[in-house]
From TrEMBL:
Annotated SUPFAM superfamilies: lambda repressor-like DNA-binding domains, Periplasmic binding protein-like I
Positions of the HTH lacI-type domain: 10-64
Organism superkingdom: Bacteria
Pfam families the UniProt entry points to: LacI (PF00356), Peripla_BP_1 (PF00532)
Protein name per Swiss-Prot or TrEMBL: Cytochrome C peroxidase
InterPro entries the UniProt entry points to: HTH_LacI, Lambda_DNA-bd_dom_sf, Peripla_BP/Lac1_sug-bd_dom, Peripla_BP_I
Any one GO molecular-function label of the UniProt entry: transcription cis-regulatory region binding
Keywords attached to this entry: DNA-binding, Oxidoreductase, Peroxidase, Transcription, Transcription regulation
Amino acid sequence: MLKPGGIGMATIQDVAAVARVSATTVSRYLNHRLDLPDETAGRINAAIKQLNYRPNVLAKRLSLGRSEAVGLLTPDIGNPFFAELAAAIEDEAERQGYTVFMNSTGGHHKREVALLQRLDDRHVDGLIVMTNGPDDGTLAQNINQHDAIVLIDEDVPGVTVPKVFVENRRGGYLATKCLLDAGHTRIAHIGGPENLFSAVERRDGYWDAMREAGLVADPALLRQGSYSREFGKLAMNELLAQPERPTAVFAGSDFIAVGVLQAAREAGLQLPSELSLVGFDDMMFADLLAPALTTVRQPTADLGRAGLATLLAIINKETPPAVTRLPVTLIERQSVCPPKAQ
């Protein structure tokens, strides 16, 4: 709407004139820094509505020294896990009055490093960083040059910024113990990249459970590669080619579990009677598989919200915990049963 008697959008001075108060009063009222009598507040609200006044967001940001935006670096927005995490961050950011600028890096460190420049250019007040590949030191060096960064889901060795993870090792233990409790002893583990933080922790959890049961993990039953269906199928085919195949598999992700399931079916094996299987993540498709997948559920949305809360604490000059850990839960379905008698 045009301002009274002139052209252009209404200004805060126009609102003040119509409401018969000062521009400073309007500004402090809109920023919730001033309590006014109902009658005065009503005049300001009526003037805002009459003039269709919109605050100058850019001026507000300049006065605060903030962009009121945060950046999110994610490896693959097409992956349901990252998509759910990003959605939770966006929802919570909107509730807190922040905009989220999202970038899918494809897991390439060069793109991750380039996007860190958003902080230098003041495009965002802080960054939430997710990566899914081992670092050669380049990413860590660049992250450590900034303060307003939070790592979530995966660690980067040598980085000193606050971090939010799930209890990966505990999850690996719960998954393996589920198979042990069912009577399995020849349990394979197919995990993510060999040196990736989450993959290492989940493998350590597998070893913890095996040692607790008085068993030694057979190196021939261990495979590390990627959190993908393709790798799950490849690794399972290798395990099935051994003279003595495993009777159960702990897959380091539900995507790996889908590949394991595909390889087992193509080999003519029935699940779970001839092969028990436990995954990790509890993706939205886990209970739709046949059999429905027993898996370790990580609180994906909570991980995103905790990451944003940590970042906002930094932006507000508070001191968040160096590391935050969120619990995981074993979700038991139909993909595990006792092994067949040999």
